[in-house]
Amino acid sequence: SPKMMEDKVFMSFTFYSTILILKMYVVAIITGQVRLRKKAFANPEDALRNGGLQYYREDPDVERCRAHRNDMENIFPFLFLGAIYSLLDPSPAVARIHFFIFCAGRIVHTIAYLLRLKAPTRSVAYSVAQLPCFSMALQILLATTPYW
């Protein structure tokens, strides 16, 4: 509704959520390109279409690109938590910090995963991104406890 489009917190949440979804699409496209380049397909029908059943196989480079599995485990919960958190009427500045930290952490996590950056870059990025999620979850629980 137009009223939601005036809500600074919801608009910030929408912006960062959209960036994260676009990042997931980019990773999926990269995965597909690496599959084609390495001729390593997850399904026999794709292998047959691209040279034969010998290409129905796993490849470590393709598996590394599949960072979107980890994204799904983290971004989908963020989408739920962020949407509900937005309804709690938090400070727009504090909410923006929550959304930005999560988004930046996930982007760094993906870059670290795809480029094989030295440890502990990826795990630090993962952990930092979890902080705003735990914060939002705690605030949601505190706000909803009287109704359970």
Automatic annotation (TrEMBL):
Major site of localization recorded for this protein: cytoplasm
Compartments in which it is found: Cytoplasm, Perinuclear region; Membrane
Keywords on record: Cytoplasm, Fatty acid biosynthesis, Fatty acid metabolism, Isomerase, Lipid biosynthesis, Lipid metabolism, Membrane, Oxidoreductase, Prostaglandin biosynthesis, Prostaglandin metabolism, Transferase, Transmembrane, Transmembrane helix
Cofactor: glutathione
Ligase found in the keyword field: no
Keyword Nucleotide-binding: no
Bilayer topology term: Multi-pass membrane protein
Classification via InterPro entries: MAPEG-like_dom_sf (IPR023352), Membr-assoc_MAPEG (IPR001129), MGST1-like (IPR040162)
UniProt record, GO biological process: prostaglandin biosynthetic process
Reaction(s) catalysed by this chain's protein: prostaglandin H2 = prostaglandin E2; 2-glyceryl-prostaglandin H2 = 2-glyceryl-prostaglandin E2; (5S)-hydroperoxy-(6E,8Z,11Z,14Z)-eicosatetraenoate + 2 glutathione = (5S)-hydroxy-(6E,8Z,11Z,14Z)-eicosatetraenoate + glutathione disulfide + H2O; prostaglandin G2 = (15S)-15-hydroperoxy-prostaglandin E2
SUPFAM superfamilies: MAPEG domain-like
General function of this protein: Terminal enzyme of the cyclooxygenase (COX)-2-mediated prostaglandin E2 (PGE2) biosynthetic pathway. Catalyzes the glutathione-dependent oxidoreduction of prostaglandin endoperoxide H2 (PGH2) to prostaglandin E2 (PGE2) in response to inflammatory stimuli. Plays a key role in inflammation response, fever and pain. Also catalyzes the oxidoreduction of endocannabinoids into prostaglandin glycerol esters and PGG2 into 15-hydroperoxy-PGE2.
Family: Belongs to the MAPEG family.
Protein name, as recorded: Prostaglandin E synthase
Organism expressing this protein natively: Psophia crepitans (common trumpeter)
Source lineage: Eukaryota, Metazoa, Chordata, Craniata, Vertebrata
Gene from which this protein is expressed: Ptges
